[in-house]
Amino acid sequence: MALLLDLLSWALLLTGSAFLLIGGIGLLRFPDFYSRLQAAGITDTVCSITILLGLTLQADALPTAVKLLFTLGFLLFTAPLASLALAKAARHSRIDPWRPGDGGGSSPP
User: Fold this and answer.
1) Are the C-beta atoms of 108 and 94 separated by less than 8 Å?
2) Other residues' Cβ atoms within 10 Å of the Cβ of residue 48
3) Largest CA distance in the chain
4) Which helix (H) or strand (E) holds 21?
């Protein structure tokens, strides 16, 4: 049983690390603020879920596992709201989305 928990935990930790790497590549490769925000927001949430669940399976004591799950719950509420606040601030600042042929998102005058 311990081997199965270790394998599942490591699978979750490696999956989270892969999503973290993919999100970092997306931040470097995408052309404008909005697509970069989407890459960061989605992969950040999935990465948090998988890594914290993997760590929860590795926790020795129940209080440690409960703290990790509370942290996960907190991140599930705050990460999407942070992305929404950043997107609203960008729209308020009149940062336009990228269109093919633009060469990048336009900045305010």
Assistant:
1) yes
2) 19
3) 62
4) helix 2-29
